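[step 3/7] fold_predict: job queued, chain A
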Amino acid sequence: MARRIVDVAVIIPDASPVLTLARVGRLDLFETFVAPIQIVDQVYYEISKAANDPDGKVAAWLAHRGDAITVIETMVGLGFRTRLMRGEVPKGGNLGEIAVDEYATQLARAASRTFVPLVLFEDPDVLETRIARLPRVHLLNTAAWIRALALEGVIPDGLAILAAINAQRSSPMLPMERVGRTRHVQSNWIRRPLT
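[step 4/7] structure written:
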């Protein structure tokens, strides 16, 4: 049977891709995705708190792109917000990862066979999470995403963006992509311009 090429929903499993692009002033790159962007509530909290967004770039981006971003509610996030409302100061720790694992469980149980989550990440630890082990998941790190956009001619300054990102890191981020494949589905996240 021939594989179908499907569009994907972009899932951001941790704050790193958003905060990194905010630091180099390129949150506009998220507009290159034609698919909806999904962020679990706990990760949304992490990217939008003032300590991680001191100059308000992420807040402005969220306000601008709000219609294209879906915040996925989780029990983890609900529990965290409940504690905040009580005046407690809960430790965030790994709550973002736990919330993403909760969402991955929901996807494993109820997602359509033609739904392919594109997981945009930076930290290689994401590869050990449940969402990375879903059968149809398409894994794409920020470096591979920017590199592909540059190679396809979508952005002219991809190498400069990667250099700016890597200048802030202790070791360079190398491109990593693993296409989601099953017997019926092959994922594709980039739309090439019609000629």
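[step 5/7] annotate
The chain has one domain: 4-187.
The CA atoms of residues 37 and 69 lie 5 Å apart.
exit 0
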